[in-house]
Give the backbone structure.
Amino acid sequence: MKSLRDVVSMVLGVIALIAATAATAGTAEVATKIKASPVGRVIGGWTVKETLVQGVYSLQHPSGQYEPYFTDEAVTMLKTNQGWQRLESGGLQPPMSDAEKQKVQAALFQWLKLDAAMPFRYGTGARKVVLISAFDCPSCRALERDMESRAKSLNATIYLFPMALNYRDKRAMDAATALWCRPDAASAWRSVMKGSASPTQGTTGNCGLRSAEYTRSLAAMLGSYGVPAFLFEDGRVVRGASALASELPALGVVSSAH
């Protein structure tokens, strides 16, 4: 499997190919590379954190007042509020085109840490789709009800990453994390989304990547906090319950169960 840098190198000609088995850099190493880069004077003091995507790191302003940036482990690209941009010796290049951005997002999908997600399997689970959803989002609940009603005609594995609709509300985000941390996370999530249970407040200790803050970071990496949102293997991102419902054929729908 090729890394994010390998994939982007092939499709965009951004950086030289590297060995697919190269070890992922640590946050300290990435921070050092950022300080030495052409943008080091601007963001060299930002905090570097791991993300749900192997080889991709978030850069957060110490004050926490600004949206995060993202970079690959070699610091050859930067995701800013302008979109994905190449980082070359002369500085940041113009934002990538939509087609280039989709190829980057396809690479992000390839290296997404899916083992941290709540998996929901339909049929043989042949297609892989990432769903970013929020427990307190009416549109998210409507979408998941629609998917359940069509369960027999779906043929996909949905990898769900949860958060809260109001991602700035710590209590709500903690509730999403608490759901995710449960041993029965998938069934507990379904109960909450059906309205037959309420999420509990607080968390259950350190659950590693199973934190709503990591989902928030993933949403920012993909360009918006809007939920619900699908990320497809080809790098397409689709948001909104109505738009997602129209994408159900891509999940293997062969007939309506309604």
About this structure: The chain is about 35% helix and 20% strand.
